[in-house]
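Working notes for the structural subgroup meeting. M.R. asked for a predicted model of this chain before we commit to crystallization trials. I am recording the input and output together here so anyone reviewing the notebook later can reproduce the run.

Input as submitted:
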Amino acid sequence: MIVVSDTSPINYLLLIDQIQVLQLLFEQVIIPEAVRDEMLDPDAPEILRRWITDPPFWLDIRSVSTIDPALSVLDAGEQAAITLAETLSADVLLIDERLGRQIATERGLSIVGTIGVLDEAANCGLVDLADALARLQQTNFRISRRLVQALLDRSTD
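Returned structure, recorded in token form:
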């Protein structure tokens, strides 16, 4: 399975101490250099900057040669992640930002966000969904209470 990620899912999974689920679910995750550069930005969370300076064996960093100008409404990481996902015919693009998700979907890419990753990890018995969502809500991740409740209700059925 080819999985490409934008910055956000990796960032939030690190912040809630659940980064291992990416390797457990997907074995390998590919990011473009632009995403690595966002992770190294001085304004990025320290945990993310430290993590990317010594990336795990399952993270593959690739260059992207040409970006479609139609993607210019997105940040550099999103542009590169979408481009790389298209170039590699990725099975999944991990992305959270609403506009990026919309554009990726319009371009025929299959997308999953941080919530989807946590939900799948919980379905596989890898995480406690209630705990992971509670931790996520303690970050600056935006998620509606209604969605959290729907996920929790479904997970207890």
